[in-house]
Amino acid sequence: MAKEGETIRVDKELDLSNAGRGVWLVKVPKYIANKWEKAPGNIEVGKLKISKQVGQKAQVSLTLSDAVINIDPAEEIPRDHRLDVSVVTKQTLGVFSHAITTTRDDPVPECEKQYMEGRIVQKLECRPYADHCYMKMKLESIRKASQPARQVKSLEKIVHNYKPVSDHKHNIEDRERKKAEGKKSRDDKNAVLDMLFNAFEKHQYYNIKDLVRITRQPISYLKEILKEVCDYNMKNPHKNMWELKKEYRHYKEDDKKDDDATKDTMSDSDSD
To answer: What is the pTM of this model?
Structure first.
């Protein structure tokens, strides 16, 4: 038994006893491949007929068996086909198979043996005859391909599942936000000014969102008051920020001392 985490190594052998055998590579239409995939492994799927005349190429034909044709009677396919033969000359192709040996007690593969079943000597392409059955099958396939993937259907009763979304979440949230702003009552102008002056005593610059949050006023009404007592910065480093006009600024004593000290330092540097 292989232990957990242990790398499983499988010995592989290649049997070349059939390497000299010539095999055919046959390409069949999709409708034949689908029938053969559904067919059980113990039935005859068709017969090959090879006829050759002197001085001419061999004629190869394929006739599907009744068992294959009747696998799905609703899907009618042509019975007779011709096989166009071409010889493989400029490349080497082979057919391989493999068998894995295991034991009943240990499902881990003990040995994997590969077989070369033969070398491809001819390529054959299976083509149907343009008879009535084939033309009918092609018309049906064209009709199915032309049908749109989505179709409009009239509903006789209300469908509760898979209803289209009448509105999107972000639109609903935006409308609710606008309604909430519209319902904000306008306070007295002097009361709003007091709130603004108190705010600007703490910080020199504010954006409009913070001022709306602080005053809880409609944004249009608040901007009217801000234009009277504030300047709107259009340049960096305080772009899109509001600050009090010079005539409304009230600095604390410490701030004035700092400003005076800064001015003195600048004057000293100028004198130097």
So the answer is: 0.44
